[in-house]
Design a protein that fits this description.
alpha+beta, Alpha-Beta Plaits, five-stranded mixed β-sheet
């Protein structure tokens, strides 16, 4: 017969020999005499007399298990061996109301919640719960099995399932109300398997890692200043979080962890974790209250970018609910704060000059009409006004001086109203040109240069034509097609120019074709240029209608807006379009369209549109193909001429032969002029793409 043992709960205090006696005429909890009256549950008129003893007895034991007793209390004196509840009922225990309140259910729930936040969740260790429930039950033990007796069915079933889940080699056998657990094999292999697959230890490791990372996450603060620095993503998250995410994505490899580079996927994941983290979340809540101190660059960038491109509130709110973006209200708050800060700078500097422009850089401007007429059924308004853009051209030698203020954005107010712009910027005064034509200024200086730039450029264009001819004579290969842009890009040396800095000034609702708007634009541009680059004359690019108005203003008021104060340039796109139309008029009814269709360069409709330059890129490509074909035919004709001569005769040079053929054959003259016009147009396009102003001037003159 097996021996019987009594299992004792280690959390309950043992019976002490020198135990303090309880005075049942005093408060059973504090054992003090005060002016406060005593309360006794047995004096209640309820039919279930003494139920109050059950509640407080359970709460006292639970407070003791949590080590959160609200007052010094020795449980040994409250239990005579039959349990606290029975002892209270037998002795008609009394207490002060203030003492009893310290042990009520609300205080107990708060104590349990404090334990949960400290990482000691009582419910996360059900083994302790089962241990306490069976603390006073008898256990029968033998060599290879355990006999549990005198247990309720629910407790026994729950405990049995947990033991079997942790020790798969055990088998449960039920005999009446008792459950026998026996090993199928030896105990050694079973214990070894349990040690290797201890999921509780893994859970503890995960909890410890989360605790370490979360501690650094809540100590890291990221503040948005209105712009994104180069390393803002790395600075916004702690290094421990980056390391953990990198291990999860790439594996715990020592080589990947010791490297300097961090992948964008790692940065993005870490930023979203930092942004969506919370110190404490309510039970059952599915929303996250985001802290501005933990707003990482990624969700801010996503929210601002989506709003700038779509203006869709529903889309931003959907991304916010997914934890990928800041909310729409936060986007509007940031936009308002940034706009108000810029307006304050405009008022302080007394000039509208965007803060991203840098000091000491050559600055150019462009004025054009802005037309926004949305066709969406949800659109409520359209806009037709004037826009002014400023451009700066930095280089490695001169990168300019930063003018931006890197101060923290102020806390946004509840309103989304922007500050007013300076009146000197928004007020456009009306203006009318005089009826009489203004006198034209006299040209000062030569109108043409020495021609070295255009000569060298034409030589390079014919070099491209020679390359195309050589590729045409060779066996066709997969890379045999050499475009005009590819050839010149391969010949250009490395440039030291950095990407241009662009800024769009606040839009005007006024019509761009009005004289007052153009003169006001010239004043605004002059102030902005003087703010960033002292002593520079403003350079303004406009389209053909605005160019006419600008020149009339210069000729009418030469002392203020004359050509020695402003440089007005016709836009390069309009000049190229005009050149393409000139060549189209030259080739009309010459069979050029039919030749393109027969050669399958374009369809009949597309080829006919080349005459009017309806599509600039396609028309330019058609003229590149035409120039290459004409040059190949020209060189073939010259080669045929040299082969037809007798051996004693000396052939003329290529240029002399072309001149003689031009005088003799009108058709040769026509296509030779066509080739020269197309090469000259490509030279002008090259001057725009390479920012070669001398070549730009030579190609126009």
């Amino acid at each position: 017969m097996s021996k019987s043992y009594q299992r004792v709960d280690p959390l309950q205090p043992g019976q002490s020999k020198a135990q303090v006696q309880t005075d049942w005429n005093k408060c059973v909890l504090c054992q003090k005499i005060t002016r406060e009256s005593l309360q006794c549950p047995t004096e209640s008129k309820r039919h279930d007399v003494g139920v109050g003893y059950s509640t407080i007895a359970f709460n006292i034991r639970r407070f003791n298990e949590l080590h959160e007793l609200p007052m010094p209390l020795e449980l040994g004196r409250l239990d005579d061996g039959n349990g606290i509840e029975a002892t209270f009922l037998e002795n008609n225990a009394k207490w002060h109301k203030s003492c009893h309140t310290k042990f009520n259910n609300i205080k107990l729930q708060r104590a349990e919640k404090r334990k949960c936040t400290q990482g000691c969740d009582p419910d996360a260790t059900p083994s302790k719960k089962y241990t306490r429930q069976v603390a006073h039950h008898e256990v029968a033990a033998s060599d290879n099995n355990l006999e549990w007796s005198s247990m309720s069915d629910n407790i026994a079933q729950s405990l049995k399932n947990r033991i079997l889940a942790q020790i798969p080699d055990l088998t449960a056998h039920k005999e009446g109300r008792d459950i026998l657990l026996a090993f199928d094999k030896d105990v050694g292999p079973a214990l070894r398997k349990v040690c290797k697959e201890d999921y509780d230890d893994e859970a503890i490791c995960l909890a410890r890692a989360a605790e370490i990372v979360r501690r650094e996450m809540f100590q890291t603060a990221a503040t948005f200043t209105g712009s994104f620095d180069e390393d803002c993503q790395v600075k916004s998250v702690p290094q421990s979080l980056l390391t953990l995410v990198s291990m999860i994505l790439d594996g715990p490899n020592i080589k990947s962890q010791s490297g300097d580079g961090v992948t964008q996927a790692t940065l993005s994941t870490a930023q979203l974790l930092q942004y969506n983290s919370s110190i404490r979340r309510r039970v059952g809540s599915t929303t996250v209250r985001h802290n501005k101190d933990r707003e990482t660059p990624l969700p801010i960038y996503v929210g601002l970018t989506v709003h700038a491109r779509t203006r869709k509130r529903d889309l931003i709110e959907m991304l916010f609910d997914l934890g990928l973006s800041i909310s729409y209200d936060r986007v509007m708050a940031i936009s308002t704060s940034m706009g108000n800060r810029v307006c304050e700078q405009y008022h302080r500097d007394e000039v509208v000059c965007p803060p991203n422009l840098r000091e000491g850089l050559f600055t150019t401007a462009a004025v054009d009409n802005i037309d926004h007429n949305p066709s969406s059924t949800t659109s409520t308004d359209s806009f037709h006004g004037t826009g002014i853009s400023l451009f700066q051209h930095p280089s490695l030698q001169n990168n300019g001086t930063d003018r931006r203020e890197h101060s923290v954005l102020e806390q946004p107010s509840t309103t989304t109203t922007l500050s007013e712009l300076p009146e000197s910027y928004t007020c456009v005064r009306p203006l009318v040109l005089p009826r009489k034509d203004p006198p034209l200024p006299k040209a000062d200086g030569p109108l043409k240069s020495d021609g070295q730039e255009i000569t060298q450029a034409l030589h390079q264009e014919y070099g491209w034509l020679d390359t195309v001819k050589q590729r045409y004579q060779e066996i066709p290969q997969s890379d045999s097609n050499l475009s005009w842009a590819t050839y010149h890009a391969s010949k250009e040396s490395g440039q030291d120019n950095l990407p241009a800095i662009t800024a769009l000034l606040p839009l005007f609702p006024d019509d761009s074709k009005s004289v007052g708007m153009i003169r006001h634009s010239m004043d605004v541009i002059k102030k902005a240029v003087m703010e960033v680059n002292q002593g520079q004359k403003p350079v303004i690019t406009v389209d053909q209608p605005l160019y006419t108005i600008s020149k009339q203003i210069q000729w009418t008021w030469p002392s203020t807006y004359g050509e020695d104060h402003f440089v007005i340039i016709l836009g390069g796109l309009h000049i190229e379009m005009a050149g393409l139309k000139v060549i189209g008029d030259w080739l009309e009814d010459a069979g050029w369209v039919e030749a393109l269709v027969q050669a399958k360069v374009a369809s009949p409709g597309t080829a006919d549109s080349f005459l009017h330059a309806s599509h600039v890129t396609r028309t330019r490509h058609a003229h590149q193909v035409t120039a290459s074909s004409l040059y190949i035919l020209l060189t073939k004709s010259y080669a045929h001429y040299t082969e037809s001569l007798e051996s004693e005769s000396h052939p003329e040079s290529f240029d002399d032969w072309c001149g003689q053929r031009i005088r003799d054959v009108p058709q040769f003259q026509f296509w030779h002029i066509t080739l020269q016009l197309e090469v000259l147009l490509l030279t002008f396009v090259k001057s725009l793409r390479t920012a070669n102003f001398p070549l730009y001037m030579d190609s126009l003159t």
